[in-house]
Amino acid sequence: MADLVTRTEWGARAPHGSYSTLMSTRGVKVHYTGGRVDPKMLDDHDRCIGAVKSFQNFHMDGNGWIDLGYTCVACWHRKVFVGRGLHHLPAANGPGLNSGHYAVLALVGNAGLVEPTDELLLAIWDAIDWLRANGGAGKEIKGHRDGYSTDCPGDPLYSWIRKGAPRPRGGTRPADVDAKPVTGHTPRWPGRLLTYPPLTVGDDVEDWQRQMERRGWDITVDGQYGPQSADVCRRFQAEKGLAVDGIVGARTWRAAFEAPIT
Is the pLDDT of residue 183 over 80? Predict the structure, then answer.
């Protein structure tokens, strides 16, 4: 199931009015921000929260809409923010087009962060799966520009949609993972990327390092994700058939804790 960030959790404002009911749709339309997205967002989930709040403020105070125009928002840390939510008419698809599809915003722009990562694409898929399972969404996956004159959702994301929106390789949702946890308990992914450079420091780094030590890797457990940790990460990713980038995202985190020790 999707890793949902509820409206209460992200601090949503109350809507100015009542939503129109939407029992089912033909599918989902994907959107992008249409502006610059700061690359610092990759390392700071709070920036994702700030962006969602900013869009809600703009839609309510600038556009005069009753709420954020999107059904939900997919972020770089594979989380899905609930916007208008299930069975509520969105406002972002365009006049006369909102009843046909739910609206999913991906926090990718036309400058800065332009190319969607696997984690972002998986978040979009998590949103789609959630809407299909619980909101009556049909099988269509379209871009905002399909039926409305706009550049949205940007060429890279639209190219992915035109290819059939393939789920990234190894893109198994957390609920679908069929493996026993190594320790009997899988700590929840902290929602930020562990990277070097810049140096990432924190308890989550120490948790990951300690788990890698349990798995037999020669690693210093000090809570500082430096060059040694990044090197161990790359070798572990290669071993597990993951994208080798030296970054501990959600997939690498889950592999460390959920994949059986051999």
Answer: no
Look over the chain and give the mean of its residue pLDDT values, rounded to a whole number. Answer: 89
Judge whether 142 and 161 are in contact, CB under 8 Å: yes
The tokens describing 182, both together, are 């190594």
What average pLDDT does the segment 166-179 reach?
52
Q: Which residues pair with 30 in a beta bridge?
A: 104, 143
In angstroms, rounded to a whole number, what is the distance separating the alpha carbons of residues 169 and 164?
Answer: 14
CATH (one of 2.60.40.10, 3.40.80.10, 3.30.1490.480, 3.40.50.10070) for 4-162: 3.40.80.10
CA distance 19 to 16: 9
186 has a pLDDT exceeding 70? no
Q: If residue 258 lies in a helix (H) or strand (E), which one and from where to where?
A: helix 250-258
Residue limits of CATH 3.40.80.10 in the chain? 4-162
Residues 205, 223: contact at Cβ < 8 Å?
A: yes
- Cα(27)–Cα(44) distance, integer angstroms: 31
pLDDT tens digits, 123-147: 999 999 999 999 999 999 999 999 8
Residues of the chain with CATH 1.10.101.10: 177-258
Q: Is residue 6 predicted with pLDDT exceeding 60?
A: yes
CATH code for the structural domain at 177-258: 1.10.101.10
Phi, psi of 112 (to 5 degrees): 75, -115
